[in-house]
Design brief:
The protein is α/β, with parallel strands linked by helices. The chain is built from eight helices and nine strands.
């Protein structure tokens, strides 16, 4: 399946709008060591053909994709709590990649792999249709300025692409702490015909999404978090 992603003009050419900007974040010595030593084992290089996910993990098990795992705290906790599932995380920023690789080694996890690449290109080329049992998109960049809303990850073309990669009955779980982004997510999710809401609008936080320290602190300060859980019908 191909999707028409929003375009912008850069360097005299029209290119797909990306939802991220590669910043020169500080990579700690421990994160750098983890990348150097562990990425060859747990990292998956980008390729332009679909992965054999069962072969990648050496078993047949439910496959969960996470887009933008940040520093990997939630990913590692979920993977450790659900050893019966396999998790494939996508992240572009090296500090987060190093942090998750470090957690994988410390916890002795064998059910996590990661790809350091643009998620849209990974979905288009590396994930076969109807191959995912679940998708997690937790706290994507809200791009709060109105002129940057076009860069938000959760848009109709991406949802159509995700739905095509999900198995029948697979779930898509999103979370954000920006109200206007939550409302936009709800609007575009409701408009995707392949997906149906598991709640009237926003869902209660499922036990399968652990609460991070950052989130708990925000809640104590009166901030809100909105979860959305949709299922492929």
């Amino acid at each position: 399946m191909s999707v028409s992603l929003p375009l912008e003009k850069r360097d005299g050419q029209h290119r797909a709008i990306r939802s991220f900007v590669l910043r020169q974040g500080r990579v700690s010595d421990a994160q750098r060591r983890a990348v150097d030593e562990l990425q060859p084992r747990f990292g998956v290089p980008f390729q332009d053909s679909p992965l054999d996910l069962d072969r990648l993990y050496g078993r047949s098990a439910p496959k969960i994709l996470e887009i933008g795992f940040g520093m990997g705290e939630t990913t590692a906790v979920i993977a450790q709590s659900h050893l019966e599932c396999d998790y494939l995380g996508i992240e572009v920023h090296t500090p987060g990649v190093g942090a998750l690789l470090k957690r994988i080694a410390e916890l002795g996890l064998s059910n996590v792999r990661l790809i350091q690449h643009d998620a849209v290109e990974v979905l288009q080329h590396m994930i076969a249709p109807q191959s995912l049992d679940g998708v997690h998109v937790f706290f994507p960049d809200p791009w709060p300025k109105k002129r940057h809303h076009k860069r938000r990850l959760v848009q109709a073309p991406l949802l159509a692409l995700l739905a095509s990669r999900m198995k029948q009955g697979a779930t898509l779980h999103l979370a954000t702490d920006w109200k206007d982004y939550a409302l936009q997510m709800l609007e575009v999710l409701r408009a995707e015909p392949a997906l149906e809401n598991t709640a009237a609008d926003f869902a209660e936080r499922p036990d399968t999404r652990p609460q991070t320290k950052f989130e708990a602190r925000g809640l104590r300060l009166g901030h809100q978090v909105w979860d959305l859980v949709f299922r492929k019908g």
